[in-house]
Design goal:
This protein is mostly beta strands and 124 residues long. 4% of the residues lie in helices and 57% in strands. It has a single domain (20-123), classed as Jelly Rolls. The chain has one helix and eight strands. Strands 1-8-3-6 form a four-stranded antiparallel sheet, with no helix packed on it. Strands 2-7-4-5 form a four-stranded antiparallel sheet, with no helix packed on it.
């Protein structure tokens, strides 16, 4: 698939590669609460700009797990049940300093679930 003009503008014109220091966050939540709890998050460092690349999630019991994703203070979705592990790519999604990406999860009925989440991106 060809890159859009916006995506191309994020590349270093000399190398053709994305710029910035890689960001990789991975964490696990063991939870039986019906209230949302943070699985994994990333806060763009002061004085930096972020590029969100991907958010991934996994649960030991997808039928008993709901997810919520917030990017830059905007809730993207909530109360989402997925049927299997899921990775969502974000292309050319720029974040300002101090913006947060937060993946949260909860049990639908108090059943204990183990949830893994990851966020990848870059800061420059």
């Amino acid at each position: 698939m060809a890159l859009t003009d916006r995506e191309t503008s994020l590349l270093n014109p000399e190398t053709g590669l994305a710029e910035g220091a890689p960001v990789s966050r991975l964490d696990r939540l063991v939870n039986s609460s019906v209230l949302y709890q943070e699985v994994v998050s990333w806060v763009v460092a002061a004085g930096k700009e972020g590029d969100l690349h991907e958010v991934s999630m996994f649960s030991t019991d997808f039928t008993k797990t709901q997810f919520r994703l917030t990017i830059g203070g905007v809730q993207q979705w909530t109360d989402v049940v997925v049927g299997t592990s899921l990775s969502i790519p974000f292309r050319a999604n720029r974040l300002a300093e101090s913006d947060q990406v937060i993946l949260e999860a909860r049990s639908t009925d108090g059943t204990a679930v183990t949830v893994d989440g990851s966020i990848s991106g870059a800061e420059r």
